[in-house]
Design a protein that fits this description.
The structure holds two protein chains of two kinds. Chain A is an alpha+beta fold. Chain A has helices spanning about 1-30, 35, 40-60, 70-75, 80-85, 90-110, 120-145, 170-180, 185-195, 200-230, 245-270, 270-295, 310-330, 345-375, 385-405, 405-410, 420-440, 445-475, 480-505, 610-625; strands at about 510-515, 520, 525-535, 540-550, 555-560, 560-565, 570-575, 575-580, 585-595, 600-605. Chain A has 20 helices and ten strands. In chain A, strands 2, 3, 4, 5, 6 and 7 form a six-stranded antiparallel sheet that branches. Mean pLDDT of chain A is about 90; it is low at about 300-305. Chain B is an alpha/beta fold. Chain B has a single domain (about 35-175), classed as Glutaredoxin, CATH 3.40.30.10. Chain B is built from six helices and seven strands; from the N terminus they run H-E-E-H-E-H-E-H-E-H-E-E-H. Chain B has helices at about 5-20, 55-60, 75-90, 105-115, 130, 160-175; strands at about 45, 50-55, 65-70, 95-100, 120-125, 140-145, 150-155. In chain B, strands 5-4-3-6-7 form a five-stranded mixed sheet. The longest helix of chain B is centred in the N-terminal third of the chain and has 19 residues, at about 5-20. The model of chain B has no long low-confidence stretch (mean pLDDT about 85). Classes of the chains: A alpha+beta, B alpha/beta. The interface of A and B includes residues 273 and 370 of A.
Chain lengths: ~650, ~180
């Protein structure tokens, strides 16, 4: 009975979303106040309905209702309780429901926190979000119903994919979707502005905090995904340029460009058309990512099952939303920047460079992700574009970004004497270079990567500190949350650079056969294999290895890598053992049994790998702190 | 200039539509094996009918052979069985079975019931060798030349046409090349 109620809730939510899409938009166009007033209550009702449907599906998982096809496919009576909650979004239908729920949450949040906005703006923004909700709810109901019954009911469920039975999966998808879907808010504001024809500083003050918060969540979501891949996939890598990863990374790149361009437009009035376009692009890329992951157009290691009908549906939806907004952009976008000239040497130019570099990186990732499809469509054969393409081009595009970054905050708007910021930064550039050269000669291996990482990170760190010092020296200038947020995010980039490049340069790994009692050494670390024992988990049987680790003869502890065989499908999962540390991670994974008690064992020493995610957390924190700036919440007197 | 984003998206949409259309093709995910033209993974596996005896890749080198991955649990292998039997009876080349993740008793019963087309059957109970060969599902068939180089492979059941149009020409080609 309950699942049918969930189904009804979804259908009602679709109807309410349609109402929320049509009435306020028409009302705002014609100036009918009563129609515009529908937007807020509709948003709240839709939230309640979608949340009920979600709660009902969760209930079905918790109570193991195997008469639901979706539950029977993605759960199992042995599944531990916590994973019954996360199994809700473990496959296509449920994760789409999560998407719809998070969209409803953002819509509700906009409805709640938009008291200071003029009625037509609220109506248009919520109306546009309503259109998106209609698309997703219809997709859910017509092609991916999570409440479909299985008659007769299954006696036992097939189980949740073991890869997803992991703590990281509890929060990774919600965070990622909060970011993905959050870009719907700046998108809706951009469409509202295009419809309204007024894009001014006020508009940007409304939208900037939303962009920053969405971006912060997306940053955390991507970082969690990377962290999960690192410890769960058992390969010791942290980024694979896989289509699904790229799908989340493209909106991030566009969103990062958007954050910066919104700041310029708010403060100087420049880049108005570009800011609108980026707002459209960031959300369009989120939708495109959803399409790529779900349609089966691209094959990927962690893609959902392919289904051409779904692909066609999303494609049509994509055509309407993206095509429609770009058409609107072509027709209505403002003529840019006649009133806000800036000299070549100015902060505007630097932010323009930032935007161009990020947009190029985004285009590069898009091209690389779609190239195999293009080749296939043109019958050029099956090609996969690998990490070498992405890594090389991405590095080439990001190096100038890192180089220019410290200049940004120190350069004046509109016109600047180039010698001034250069003079401020030259000593620090010299210092960074010096430390880099030292690192180059001290690094035992991967000297170029290590030196690049050290120079880049030190340069960004010192340059940002130089900016802080300038602000402190000029007494009277306070630190706004916006400034603190920017500083945090830039520090985050420095920390990330250390993590990414030093890990790449200094990581060492060995894979070899070890009999019990044998050891392997990696640099100063020695790993002694003590053998493997079998133990039984809640829904799996595991071969648990015991490895004693020591450094220069001093014992550091015991590590227990596992190989689990899940009861339901016989799928074998590698659970690597990781000894985390600030300056290095030790990583041990079990390979295949080789007979006679000996096993293939893979050991890694990964210096500074944790800094990758710490950097991402700092960046996200920067986004959140910026959003709290009181300037964004100033009530507008005139309406 | 302002129409450029829309034009770019239109091109992208065409590509994606082509992608959706392509994804309807059943053979879409058939990737050419990375093993073709490379040495076969080395192995050393017990013989099904003589459990004590181990046969390695080196033992089989010297003449080409066909390696057919199967299992008694695999319905498609049952379908492929008559095709393989007809081919094996021609004695054109050694056909070696690789019994995958199977109970030896089940495998033997299966062969007794349906007939044993194989010159020799090796068993891979933990599936390690089969994974080295990059096999995702049974049946899968490899043609390996006398030097141990993989020359051809087929994922899924072979038909008489597969053997006539693909396997035999590949075999002729490698024999000429020698």
């Amino acid at each position: 009975m309950l699942p049918e109620l969930g189904q009804v809730a979804l259908i009602l939510a679709l109807l309410v979303a349609a109402l929320q899409a049509v009435l306020p938009l028409v009302g705002a166009h014609r100036g009918i106040d009563a129609w515009m007033r529908v937007a807020r209550p509709a948003a709240f009702v839709q939230l309640v309905l979608v949340a009920s449907a979600f709660a009902i599906l969760t209930h079905a998982f918790v109570t193991q209702d195997f008469s639901l096809r979706y539950v029977a496919t993605n759960s199992n009576s042995l599944l531990p309780m916590v994973y019954r909650f996360t199994a809700v979004w473990g496959a296509h239908e449920g994760s789409l429901l999560l998407w719809a729920l998070i969209l409803a949450l953002w819509t509700g949040a906009v409805a709640l926190f938009s008291k200071a906005l003029p009625q037509p703006v609220v109506a248009r923004v919520l109306g546009v979000m309503g259109i998106v909700a209609v698309g997703f709810l219809a997709f859910l109901i017509f092609t991916s119903n999570p409440f479909g019954r299985l008659l007769p009911a299954a006696v036992e469920g097939r189980d949740l994919n073991p890869l997803l039975q992991d703590p990281g999966m509890i929060i990774h998808p919600p965070m990622l979707y909060l970011g993905y879907v959050g870009f719907c808010v700046p998108f809706a504001f951009a469409i509202a502005a295009l419809l309204d024809g007024r894009i001014d500083a006020r508009w940007l003050r409304w939208v900037r905090p939303w962009t920053n918060v969405a971006w912060g969540f997306l940053t955390i979501g991507i970082a969690l995904g990377s962290w999960w891949a690192y410890y769960e996939l058992g390969w010791g890598g942290w980024w694979f340029w896989d289509p699904v990863e790229n799908a989340s990374f493209m909106p991030w790149l566009a969103g990062t460009a958007l954050l910066h361009s919104q700041a310029v437009t708010e403060k100087r009035g420049s880049f108005r058309g570009w800011t609108l376009l980026l707002a459209i692009a960031a959300f369009s890329l989120s939708l495109l990512g959803t399409f790529l992951v779900r349609s089966g157009v691209l094959t990927s290691v962690h893609a959902f099952a392919a289904d051409p009908t779904r692909g066609l549906f999303v494609l049509v939806f994509l055509g309407i939303v993206i095509g429609g907004s770009l058409l609107l952009y072509a027709l209505r976008s403002p003529d840019d920047d006649d009133n806000s000239r800036f000299a070549t040497a100015s902060r505007e130019t630097l932010l323009l460079a930032n935007n161009l570099l990020l947009a190029s990186a985004c285009a590069m990732v898009l091209l690389g992700t779609l190239y195999p499809l293009l080749a296939d469509a043109l019958d050029l054969g099956k090609i996969s574009v690998g990490p070498p393409y992405f890594a090389l081009l991405f590095t080439l595009l990001m190096a100038p970004l890192v180089l220019l970054l410290p200049f940004g905050p120190l350069t004046r708007w509109q016109r600047e004497q180039p010698s001034r910021p250069i003079a401020m930064l030259v000593p620090w550039a010299g210092l960074a270079l010096g430390i880099g050269i030292a690192a180059f000669f001290l690094a035992p291996q991967g000297a170029w990567k290590v030196a690049a990482g050290v120079v880049g990170a030190t340069w960004v760190l010192l340059g940002t500190l130089r900016f802080l010092w300038t602000r402190l020296k000029n007494s009277g200038s306070r630190f706004t949350p916006e400034m603190i947020g920017m500083t945090l995010a830039h520090f985050g980039l420095a920390v990330f650079l250390v993590g990414a490049l030093l890990t790449e340069g200094l990581s060492r790994q060995r894979e070899l056969a070890l009999a019990p009692g044998q050891s392997v050494t990696l640099g100063a670390h020695a790993f002694r294999f003590e053998g493997v024992q079998r133990h039984v988990g809640p829904n799996y049987v595991a071969d648990t290895g015991t490895v004693q680790v020591s450094r220069d003869g001093v014992a550091l502890g015991t590590m227990h890598p596992e190989k689990r065989s899940y009861a339901s499908g016989g799928q074998v999962m590698t659970e690597a053992a990781i000894a985390p540390g600030i300056t290095r991670d030790l990583y041990v994974a079990l390979g295949e049994p080789l007979g006679g008690g000996s096993w293939a064992v893979r050991v890694h020493v990964k210096p500074f790998v944790r800094w990758i995610w710490m950097g991402a957390v700092l960046m996200a924190l920067g986004g959140f702190v910026t959003a709290t700036d009181r300037r964004f919440r100033r009530r507008e007197a005139a309406q | 200039m302002r129409w450029l984003p829309l034009a770019m998206f239109a091109a992208l949409a065409v590509l994606l539509a082509a992608g959706v259309w392509l994804s309807r093709r059943p053979d879409r995910d058939v990737l050419p094996s990375t093993l073709i033209g490379k040495p076969a993974p080395t192995f050393s596996l017990p013989v099904l009918h003589e459990p004590g005896r181990l046969v390695s890749l080196a033992d089989l080198k010297g003449a080409p052979f066909v390696l057919n991955v199967w299992g008694s649990w695999c319905p498609t292998c049952r379908e492929e069985h008559p095709v393989l039997t007809r081919f094996a009876e021609t004695k054109r080349v050694r056909v070696i079975g690789l019994d995958w993740k199977d109970d030896p008793a089940d495998a033997q019963r299966w062969l007794e019931q349906f007939g044993n087309p194989y010159w020799m059957v090796l068993t891979d109970q933990d599936g390690g060798t089969v994974i080295d060969f990059g096999v995702a599902a049974a049946p899968e068939t490899f043609l390996v030349d006398g030097n141990g180089i993989v020359r051809w492979k087929k994922a899924g059941a072979m038909t008489d046409a597969t053997i006539r149009d693909e396997l035999l020409p590949a075999l002729v080609q490698l024999e000429r090349g020698r």
